[in-house]
Every structure is written in structure tokens, then in C-alpha cells.
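Q: Predict the bound structure with nicotinamide-adenine-dinucleotide.
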Amino acid sequence: MGITELTPDYRGLIGLEGKHVLVLGGGLGIGRQTCLAAASVGAKVSVVDMDQDRAKAVAEEVDGLALTGDATDRAAVERFVGEAVRHFGPIHGLADIIGMSDNGPLSEVTDELWYRGLDLNLRHAFLALQIGAKAMTEGGSMVFVGSISGLRSAPGHAVYGAAKAGLANLVSTASLELGPGIRVNVVAPGQTATPRVAERHPEPDYYDKAAAQVPLGRVGRTSDIASAVLFFLTDLSAWITGQTLVVDGGAGRRFAYTKL
Ligand SMILES: NC(=O)c1ccc[n+]([C@@H]2O[C@H](COP(=O)([O-])OP(=O)(O)OC[C@H]3O[C@@H](n4cnc5c(N)ncnc54)[C@H](O)[C@@H]3O)[C@@H](O)[C@H]2O)c1
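A: Predicted complex:
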């Protein structure tokens, strides 16, 4: 059974009408859904992706601004944050969706993969927190996409898990330094049907097998994750900061239990 994409109706949700939301990694999957969700409640959306065609395609869908650049590069982040502010004014919401999972045993992790994993899961968050916060002169909310892998362990997820665990603590620390004006939170998805996962796992029964581990009976849709990101971007979460919200259909609740 495949997973059908869904675009929930968020109309009437308060807090983002006319506000400027910048989405890092907005060109595909969870990032694209976040752009659609923010635009559907009236936000002006800046779509950042290192893939120019993807950024342009999503910006067209949301009548937003397409920006291209590598979010792990300080000069690029300064450039596209500056361009976004010149175009739409101060940033009120920043969603950073970027991440990359390595899959290989610890014994095979090269130095290159280690640094790449840290860059693609942590460095952009550090830059977004530093540079993005300065562009949020009217206050606002930042949301980072972590992973259940940062809270639980799985073989082959050493670098990814360590970096996503680091992300949760980075954000927790940032919440102390950026409050009261700026809130900062993490959404930690469980297994979610994104184009990247579909590319890596073309087996037709892949999602059925994964769903068997999930109390809510299916893997995540990109909209499940985008809805949680949207919650943190809006005033619905006005008194929440420094938190990690797990969105995994309940999968992480299970532990290995043998009836005696
Ligand atoms: N899919 C899952 O099962 C799952 C589970 C847990 C967590 N996550 C997390 O969700 C997030 C999104 O996953 P996805 O599969 O939707 O995203 P993805 O890997 O498909 O990437 C989204 C977009 O980010 C862009 N991007 C990547 N690196 C970039 C960079 N350095 N600068 C600018 N743009 C860059 C890509 O071009 C792509 O368009 C990631 O942080 C991932 O770790 C996913």
C-alpha cells in the first residue's frame, strides 16, 4: 500500500497572516509541504533550496520568493537571508527542514562522512540560529526538523543520530538565549514517506512493513510533519520554546518486551 499525500485545510489558523516565513530546504518533501502550509494561512514564503529548479517550482506554487544556496555555507546564508528581508521584510517564522541520514555501521564511518553528517544535520541550524535570529527584528518562531533517531538508537544511524541529538540540545540552548522575542523548537519525525525515502526504498511493500511497527498503522505523510511545524510557527504554541515534539504515529513508544 502506498502513502497518499494530503494537503490539510488550515484556513482559520491564527498568527501567520501577512507574516514572512523562510523555509530552508523548502524545495521537496517535508520542506515543500511546510511552504504550502504556511502559504495556505496567508504567510509570505521565502523558499530556500540548493536545487534552483526545486526552489523555483515551490516558490511558484506559493507565490513566494525562490532563493538558491547551500545552507551549510555562512556566506550563502547571509546572502539569502539578506535577499529575503529586502524582498518581504523582517522574518517572523523560520523553518529549517534540512537533514541527511547516513546508513552504515560505525566501523565504516569515514572522517569525510562524519563531517558531512554534522554539516548537513547541525551546521545549517547553527547558521540559521545566528544569522536568522538577527533578521527576526520583530520576534517570531524558529522550527528545526530533527528525527526520532536523535532520541532513540538504530544501527547505521551513528552520525545522523548524534547530530540530531545535538540539534535538540542546540535548540534548547538557543531558546534560553533568544527568548523572550524568539521561540525555538524541534519537530522530530518518525518514518515519513518523502521522495528521498521512496528513492532509497523502491520495494512495493516497504511502507507496509514499516507501518507494522507504528501504533497508528501507517508511516508519516509529509503533511503530518508540516502540520507540527506549522503549529510551532503559529501563536498556537505561543508559550512553548526549547522543546522537541516527536511526530511518529506512536512508533517510539514501543520497547522490547518479552512476556515471562
Ligand atoms: N523521511 C523520513 O523518514 C524522516 C524521518 C525523520 C527525520 N527526517 C528529517 O526530515 C527532514 C526532511 O527530510 P526530506 O526527506 O523531506 O528532505 P530531503 O532530504 O528530500 O531534502 C529537502 C530539500 O533540502 C534541500 N537541501 C539539502 N541540503 C541542502 C543544503 N545544504 N542547503 C540548501 N538546501 C538543501 C534538498 O535539495 C531538498 O530539496 C530532514 O531533516 C530529515 O532528516 C526525515
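A: The chain has one domain: 20-191+220-243.
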